Amino acid sequence: MDTHATREHTPLELERDVVVVGAGPAGLMAARRLARAGRSVAVLEARDRVGGRTWSDTVDGAWLEIGGQWVSPDQTELLGLLDELGKETYPRYRDGESVYVGADGTRTRYTGDRFPVGETTAAEMERLIEILDGLVAEIGVREPWAHPLARELDTISFHHWLRSQSDDAEACDNIGLFIAGGMLTKPAHAFSALQAVLMAASAGSFSHLVDEDFILDRRVVGGMQSVSLAMAAELGDDVHLSTPVRTVRRDDEGVTVVSDRVVVRARRVVMAVPPNLYSRVSFEPPLPRRQHQLHQHLSLGLVIKVHAVYPTPFWREDGLSGTCFGAGRLVQEVYDNTNHGDTRGTLVGFVSDEKADAMFRLSADERRAAILAGIAEYLGDAALEPEVYFESDWGSEEWTRGAYAASFDLGGLHRYGADQAAPVGPIHWACSDLAAEGYQHVDGALRSGRAVAETLLAELGEPAAARAA
């Protein structure tokens, strides 16, 4: 794998069938499938590592999954690849009671997959889940913009739609948590009910999203980034790191992709980066107006993923699973994130959207104190003194600039959704942000990468000497 960060001589010039921009799971899957079919590829990655929004690293002696990490039973593309690569998974720790902090600040220990709320609120939550499950079943995940209800649901925010369905504020806030804070990491007033339905549909149902034992089921031994590392190892020197692409020039014969270090002449290019990064590249000639417009209606959310490592998983001694929820709290979700075979205990918590804005106005010490106090609301004062504390802030990462994935603003999905993955001549698009099933997850990235590779093989033809995929 080419890892040299700079070169003072003339950029390396390559000719390939396909050049892939981005070495995350989508780009690497596309390149892997193409290479196995006998097509020549080059992968250009701006970062000094592969993996995109998956990243495992050691911080102050603690091994942390800084990016995406969980595997759920519906993620069959990812599960199949894990089997193929010989990688093992292990379950998230979930024995014992969970903790819920209600709208009035009351802390309650509970078991099961439903919050311990009052009878009326519980009934309202069940009713809202049933309505959303019905919409998911009716609208589906592939073309939500084509449904007769698309415009109606896309021009009302998820916040206001929930309140049009119920006058129980706690029920609405709790349901909103699973989409707004837990997935899109935007305030529920910033995205549409249709976008919420798509998010739920991508996981199979809204019921799946409210079941943390389903959606946050397992982790990969060795970390999720190891999946990308394994795919990149197969591609070897065809992966070029520290190589941000500056220009994509297209003509009747294909494309020329220009970076500071490598220039690739190819028949096709796959842009396998988040949509908010498309504007970092100069396209010559410019992309069509439709693409320019739709890209301006897509944006990533904001979340602080907080890692706190303790000498032992102290919460387990108190009969707690480490799973905690509070829609109105600073830290809305907490989970036991202890690593496979580790004697220390690790908690992971999430501070999303406007709450994250407020935290970033504080100094680092003030932010740490506030967030740890938020975790201690659930698990007690022992949470205040971790051995290692680290904040994953993807919003400040140069080649990501947000988390977890891009979503449309109000009205954007029904207006532009059908066009978001449409090729522009030799330019194709692939990323988890554009996926149907597995949207904003590694599974969706892999599906997107495989799909674009199959499209390109159909266009270019699969060589007779292709290796078995």
Short characterization:
The chain has 469 residues and is α/β, with parallel strands linked by helices. The chain folds into three domains: 12-53 and 224-287 and 424-460, FAD/NAD(P)-binding domain (3-Layer(bba) Sandwich); 56-73 and 89-94 and 302-396, Polyamine Oxidase, Chain A, domain 2; 120-214, Orthogonal Bundle (Guanine Nucleotide Dissociation Inhibitor, domain 1), CATH 1.10.405.
Chain oligomer state? single chain
Shape: globular
Which fold name corresponds to the CATH topology of the largest domain?
FAD/NAD(P)-binding domain
Using only C-alpha atoms, the radius of gyration works out to 22 Å
What amount of the residues lies in strands?
A: 15-25%
Query: Which stretches of 5+ consecutive residues score pLDDT under 50?
Result: none
CATH class of the largest domain: Alpha Beta
CATH homologous superfamily (4th level) name of the largest domain? FAD/NAD(P)-binding domain
Helix fraction, binned, reads 25-40%
Mean pLDDT: 96
Tally the helices: what do you get?
A: 16
Number of domains: 3
What is the number of beta strands? Answer: 22
Sketch the major β-sheet.
8 strands, mixed
Give an account of the 3D structure.
The chain is an alpha/beta fold and 469 residues long. The chain folds into three domains: 12-53 and 224-287 and 424-460, FAD/NAD(P)-binding domain (3-Layer(bba) Sandwich); 56-73 and 89-94 and 302-396, Polyamine Oxidase, Chain A, domain 2, CATH 3.90.660; 120-214, Guanine Nucleotide Dissociation Inhibitor, domain 1 (Orthogonal Bundle), CATH 1.10.405.10. It contains 16 helices and 22 strands. The chain has helices at 25-36, 76-85, 119-139, 150-154, 158-165, 169-184, 193-202, 206-209, 212-215, 225-235, 289-296, 314-317, 353-360, 364-379, 412-416, 442-460; strands at 12-21, 41-44, 56-59, 62-65, 70-71, 89-91, 97-101, 107-110, 218-220, 239-240, 245-251, 254-259, 262-271, 282-284, 298-300, 303-310, 320-325, 333-336, 345-352, 388-393, 406-408, 427-429. The strands form five sheets. Strands 1, 2, 10, 11, 12, 13, 14 and 22 form an eight-stranded mixed β-sheet that branches. A seven-stranded mixed β-sheet has the order 8-7-17-18-19-16-20. It has a three-stranded antiparallel β-sheet with strand order 5-9-6, covered by helices on one side. α1 packs parallel to α16 (442-460) and α2 (76-85) packs across α16. The chain is globular and about 65 Å long. The two termini are 21 Å apart. The mean pLDDT is 96. Substrate binds at residue 350. Belongs to the flavin monoamine oxidase family. GO terms for molecular function: oxidoreductase activity. FAD binds at residues 45-46, 245. Keywords: Oxidoreductase.
